[in-house]
Amino acid sequence: MSHQSPIRAMLKVARPATHPANDTERFTFLLLDGFTHLALAAALEPMRVANASLGRPAYAWRIVSISGGPVSCSHGLTVLVDEALGPLARGETLIVVGGPATARRDEPGLSAALRREAAHGVRLGALCLGIYALARAGLLDGEECAVHWDLAEGFAEAFPEVHISTGAFALGRRLTAAGGAVASDLMLHLIAEAHGADLAARVADLLVCNGVRSPRSQQKVSVQSRYGMRNPRLVKVLKSMEANLETPLTAQEIADIAAMSVRQTERLFARYLKTTPMNFYMKMRLEKAHRLLSQTELSVTEIALACGYKSSSHFTKNFRAAYAVTPRAMRVVAA
User: Fold this and answer.
1) Which range of residues forms the domain containing residue 146?
2) Cα 3 versus chain centre, distance
3) How many structural domains compose the chain?
């Protein structure tokens, strides 16, 4: 009895390989200032290994910048590029690789250039925060887009026409990967679509990727792993807390979810998390507030309501106690 490897099962596609044996698929990676270096490397290495495994150039790529000059990545390394961004041929793929600065800065002329390539039949995609460049150009309107979990709320407010996916990556008309390392999973699935699951599995094995994610894989680690515990009652409570930040649960409702008394629930939190249920809950809500303050233009009052506070003054008091700065002052610093 044969057993299919987990990686092959994950990469299994319904249709056969789509590229002829002598065809070369061409990618252009546009690096924006402050791009995430991990995302670029994670996208390139699967193609390099696929070429080596096939013994032919099934994939070709070039690295470009807007000006043709070198680009600094998020950790400070300067990368030389092949040339400036220019017109691509129909059927080529242009991937925008962004970083933290991409969310704040709109490169002059970039939106028009991206729209021109899309109109000429170039397949477009984005890694990490490169999605902001596509969204500003209107090229993600009505499309599914994988957005990093820490940016999803702000991105949704800025681009309400985009269908935000909570999965690791999206393989729709626009290729998107939520974070740096996920780019390798995206590329492995593209390799599987073009050349079959066996090749993609071999590439994954050679890269020691023994846990290839699917498009619907969650971005964040499980609650159990995040907090280093396995207690099923506590896991259930924490998931319920995360799902109810705008309308907080009461201490009794939390206890009911755990199927324990309020006092027993307090002892459970003290044992595993060294705090009380309500203090831990408040920390969750304030972390959401911190994200909204730095990523959106919502007012402090609107953010307070979104995080379960009926009073802006109460919200400000708790926020200052947690972060040693008021919400308004933190927004000035973030800007």
Assistant:
1) 6-206
2) 33
3) 2
